[in-house]
Design brief:
The chain is an all-alpha fold and 75 residues long. Helix content is 68%, strand content 0%. The chain has two helices and no strands. It has helices spanning 17-38, 43-71. Helix 1 packs antiparallel against helix 2. The longest helix is centred in the last third of the chain and has 29 residues, at 43-71. It is extended, with a radius of gyration of 17 Å.
Length: 75
Amino acid sequence: MRRFRWEGPPRAIPKHPYRDSAAIYAVLAAVVVGLTAATGGDVPRSIGIAAVLFVGATAYSWWRWRQRITRGEDE
């Protein structure tokens, strides 16, 4: 019987991990605001929520990149 494992092949650290993470989360925040505007929701509230989510997700990913880089995990 085969078991499913979450581990994939090792990945190398990207050339610009901090910038890439911030760009991805900025796009996702824009999608949240765009979907809210498209569906007629409360746009100012969605901007606030998207900003909080952007800051939280970016801070977490930067913290994880910093840990990985300082440990020298160039997987």
